[in-house]
Please model this.
Amino acid sequence: MKTLKIAIQKSGRLNEKSVELLKNCGLSFENYKSSLISTVSNFPLEILFLRDDDIPEYVQDGIADIGLVGENVIAETNVEVAYLQRLGFGKCTLKIAVPNDSDYKTILDLDGKAIATSYPVILQKFLDKENIKADVKTISGSVEIAPGLGLADAIFDIVSTGGTLRSNNLMPFVDVMSSEAILIGRKGEENNPLILELLQRIQSVMRAKETKYVVLNVEKINLDKILALLPGVKSPSVLPLAEKGWVAVHTVIPERDFWSHINELKAAGAQGIVVMPIEKIIL
Ligand code: ATP
Ligand code: ZN
Model:
């Protein structure tokens, strides 16, 4: 079978998590900062390291079979690709922000104003949908200084903590889009067996990340109370301990369910609770 090609970001906010995800899928490859391409030794896969902006088009045009990129970049490049899997990292929000001392009340107040952005396609779509006629000024970086320089009345940019906005006397005004990293593929190629195998590995890594292996000890008389508090992937294993009348309960549960039940588990008599990470969960 032919070798699959995956495009990931060469350097930047998605690079490290993308490499980590592929490594956690059991793929072995060298990750030299200088190389543009890396061959996986234990799976028919080549990794292309690219600027994130180029990834959607490379996938659409078939230079790469699949790609890992922010949803915002896909939306901005206007390409037709298949969404294979949301990946849960690289989360951010694209917002319109306005100067602190402005008196805009509703988004309609943006009518006739100039908005600076590096994401003109997403912004224009939003303005069209809301029936707002604003002047979209495309600039490639440091969008947040545009109002201070008198270049624009507002900006549209990625905002995470809001620190950059605050230090430029801007405040969030409208949330336009939330984004996370996505695995994309070419339309019509979704059933390629290599893609499906890689997808299965990615999903098992993601499931494992959210889930913990929990072991605890409990006196048999309290066992039913404990089991009622542990909604597992399957029913828990119950093993006898050397000490008479005591058992160990082993289970696999979503971490958030575990934390919300920890005090109840203790009150129900659970002791020696051990929580362990899981590498993969194959269903
Ligand atoms: P490249 O050199 O590959 O073009 P870039 O400078 O365009 O990189 P980065 O800043 O590395 O891009 O961001 C990559 C992606 O990470 C963004 O497109 C977005 O999807 C996501 N992201 C998550 N949080 C943030 C954030 N706080 N600021 C910017 N991007 C973020
Ligand atoms: Zn980029």
